Structures are given as structure tokens and as C-alpha cells.
Amino acid sequence: MPTRFRTVPVIRTEPVRDTFVKPAVRFGDAGARPDVVLDLSLEKLLPRIIQWAGDLLRQWEDRLLKPYYLFMARSTIQPNLFGPRPATSPGLNRFAVIGDPGSGKGPQFDIADRMLERYEKTPFASALVLGDNVYEHGEVEKFHRILWRPYRHLYNKGIRFFPVLGNHDVHGTRGDEQLHYWGAPRYYSFKIDDGKNAGNDVEFFAIDTTVLLPGYDNCYKGDELWAKQTAKRQLEWLDKSLSQSKAKYKIVYGHYPLYSSGMHGLREDVTLRLRDILEPILERNSVDVYLAGHEHHYERSHPIKGVTHILSGGAGRSRKIHYEHDFNYPRAAAVEAFHFMLFEITPDGLKYQAIDREDRVIDEGVITKPEAGQKAAFA
């Protein structure tokens, strides 16, 4: 009989410190929330007014500077995404993760600022971008303001952003112009290592999950045949590339999650279809981590058929966790918060932290390889 969780958010101010050999189920938000009291003081209202005014100004900016933004969007901000990097580049063994960043509003800029502050303390050389990079419909005229401006200081420090597309990026389009802007193909792989220990490396496999479900959320309407053909080629590439990989750790990332406590997780027709498509490939090729966005919160599972599922979709939007789910999978953490993630390759494993808008660590731990002959599983 599957475990069934019926719970309400647990208020906690301490971060989760958990490893997969010490299972625990933690739920909550990113900090204590006292009873709601109407506070109309200037101290409370002023930050809200400033954020509202900034958002309004950016909307008018889009309209007034549209010709300039369209011109800038024809360029490529990362012309040498997969080129070699100097061995002296800082943070080659670390990478960040942002999901669903493309709101263009205050929280996106706040998360970008926290990333820069963390970089100044502990440099990282790469960032994975999990889709829904430009709301609401992947508009070309928004590329410069949403994809460049928040992260310009990180680009200028040499950090490379490795994106995948989300459903909002392909509304009425195939997303080709955005991929050109990033300087990235639709699906691809690349490696990083710790720079010290031979064989202590990670290979990433970036996939476009939107083509796996043509028609879902109005994606590829009238273009379903192309999407299905692209999905078939992509899955063949993914299976073959994973089987040939010699990396110690394998991470696959795309936009749609296979397990979720969010609003979209209630759509079992979608999540079960994705599991049918992807889980056999992930399992037989010993993938360690599957990263996804789409939902606007943070969530991590214990290993499911050997794969740790991490949902990180709060780099620009935040949404409540749906506790009415019938959870039939082992959740380890679920937190409603704007956030990003940092990973580090170490001799002990893949260390990770989820960090919120206030620079608080809301989850952390180490992902390790199972002992010989053992494999964490959940059927």
C-alpha cells in the first residue's frame, strides 16, 4: 500500500540537513509566517510600492523600446557556449540551477542578485536554466530585458548558461529564436569535473520535454508532427548518449517534472505519460539526478528507481504547494519559496544547496553513488 501523506505546511526556520542515507520527510515554507495582521506602515508598504512601480516601468519600457530590444534579440549572447575554458577559470567544479526565471519582475532580479553575492564568495562557472525563460509566450522583444539584464554581471564574469525550453517559451513558436539567442541547440550534453580528481566528473544531458507532449498547454498546435519526430530523435539520442557516458555522475534536466507536489502534479495524465517515456531511459542508464522546473516551488525526492528528482522552479515565480495530493512517492523536501540552487562536485559526492530570496538555505545535502550491488529504488 503506497504511503499517503495528508499534511499541512510545517513552519520551520532551520534548513533541512538531510542525506539520502538518513531519510526524512520535511515540508514547509522558507521561514516562519505569523498570523496575518494588516500593517499599513510606511516601512511595510514602501518596498511593495517600489516593486509595483518598477514592474509598471518595465512594462512601459517593453513598449517604448521594442524596436531596440528586437534588434538586440537577433544577436547571440553566448557565441562559444561549448568552447574550451582556461583551466584557471574559477568554480569549474560548481554550477547553479535556476528554473522558471522569466518573469522580468522583482523576484527574478532579487534571485540574480543573490546568485552574484554567492559567486563573490564561492565562484561557480556554469548555470543550468530549466525552462519558462521568458513569460508569457517567449516574446522575442523580451529577450534582452529578461535573459540578459538580470544576469549581465554573471555573464561578464564568464559564467555560461545552459538552457532548455519550457512550455511558455514555445507558445506559438518552436523556440528557435530563443535557442539562437542563448547559442544553444535544442538538446545536448556537456561535462564538468572537480579539476583535481580524475574521474570525479558530471555529464549533463539537456532535453526539450515540451516536444514529448505536443498539444499540452497549447504547445506546437498545428505542428504536432514536427514535435513528435523531434521527440523521437531526441529520445534515441538521449538513450544512446547516456549508455555511452563514462562520467561518474549523470544528470538529465528538462522543464517538465516526473513527480510534483504542485498544481501541475495533479494532472496525472501528464505526469504518468512523462514517466512512461523517460523513466525507463533514466533507470537503465543509471542516471543519478533528474532536474526540472514547471512548478514554482522547491522539491526533492529520495531516490526513485535510483534517480533523485529535484524540482526547482522558483527563480522568477512562486506558487503554493498542493498538500491535497495523494503522494505515492518518497518526498524528502517541499518548500514554497523563490530560490535557486548551487551544486559542487566533491570527493564525497554532489553537494547541493537550495537558497531562497533572502539568502537562506532551505535545503542541503549530498548526493552519493550507491554502494556496489545496491541501488535505491521505489516502485
| Counted beta strands | 15
The rough form would be described as globular
Mean of all residue-level pLDDT scores: 83
Q: What pattern of helices and strands is seen along the backbone?
A: EEHHEHEHHEHEEHEHEEEEEEE
Runs in which pLDDT lies below 50 for 5 or more consecutive residues are 1-26, 29-37
Instruction: Sketch the major β-sheet.
Output: 8 strands, mixed
Helix content: 25-40%
Strand order of the largest sheet: 2-12-10-11-9-8-7-6
Terminal Cα span:
11 Å
In terms of structural class, how would the helical and strand content be classed? alpha/beta
Radius of gyration: 20 Å
User: β content, as a range?
Assistant: 15-25%
Quaternary class: single chain
Number of helices: 8
